Amino acid sequence: MLIILQKQDYKKIVRQALEQLPVEACGLLGGTIDENGNSVVKGIYPLTNMDNSPEHFSMDPKEQFAAVKDMRKQGWSMLGNYHSHPVSPARPSAEDKRLAFDPKVSYFIISLLEREQPVLKSFRIQQGLVAEEEIKIIGEE
C-alpha cells in the first residue's frame, strides 16, 4: 500500500517537529482511500503532546476528538498518526510498538537526527510486528 502525501503537508509536519524541539511533536492524519487502496492524506492535525517530553508523547484527548470530528465533517477517515523522534531514527521504539493499538492505521515517524535532512517514514504495526509503508510526496510547496 502507498501513502500519498502533499508536499505542503510534509512541510507542515517537519515545521511542527522542529518548532517543538526538544519535545516530541504529534498529530493525526485524515484522508481517504483511493480506488487502488492507497491512503491519500488530505489533512494534517497537529496536536499537543500532553507529556511534554523528548522521549514519548500522548495526544490531548479534546484535540483528538475535535480533529476526528472535523475529519468526519470533511468525509474523511483517520488514516493514522505521526510523531517526531528528536534524537533517534525514524523507526518505531519499543514503546511505539507497545502502544500501537490499531493495525489498520499508519504510524508516521519523523526523525530529526539530521536537522537539515528530516527523515519521514510510515509503518503498520500489528501485535508488535512492524511493516514499513511507502510514502509518495507529491505537489508543490
UniProtKB/TrEMBL annotation:
Gene3D superfamilies: Cytidine Deaminase, domain 2. Its EC number is 3.4.17.-. It is an enzyme of class 3 (hydrolase). Keywords: Carboxypeptidase, Hydrolase, Metal-binding, Metalloprotease, Protease, Zinc. SUPFAM superfamilies: JAB1/MPN domain. This is CysO-cysteine peptidase. It comes from Sporomusa sphaeroides DSM 2875. Residues 3-129 form the MPN domain. One of its GO terms (molecular function) is carboxypeptidase activity. InterPro entries: JAB_dom_prok (IPR028090), JAMM/MPN+_dom (IPR000555), MPN (IPR037518), VirAsm_ModProt (IPR051929). Pfam families: Prok-JAB.
